[in-house]
Amino acid sequence: QVQLAESGGGSVQAGGSLRLSCAASGYTYSRPCMGWFRQAPGKEREGVAVICPKFGSTNYADSVKGRFTISQDNTNNTLYLQMMSLKPEDTAMYYCALATSWYSGLDPHEYNFWGQGTQVTVSS
User: For 94-121, what is the mean pLDDT?
Assistant: First the structure.
């Protein structure tokens, strides 16, 4: 059973930084795509950043390019999202997700397994 557990959320002021972590376990897929998504109240879930290690590729939403960095540590099956220069519009629940395909983009519908989320709040 695939389990994804996010951590690292919190409240910061605009311009601050946070690093989110997602501990993944229970999957047998070889080097699946994984990603970070977010959902603000009243809005649809949107893709933030994804990584597909089989292709060595990363993909970012335009709104976070240059500020967020996705990475993963295969030794402990952990996905990270380093977030810098945070803005109030980054406020949302952030979710980690895993796709069973070798290549997936920023569309949440392409992902099969989800964590419970971690809240990020950025104040102005």
Answer: 94
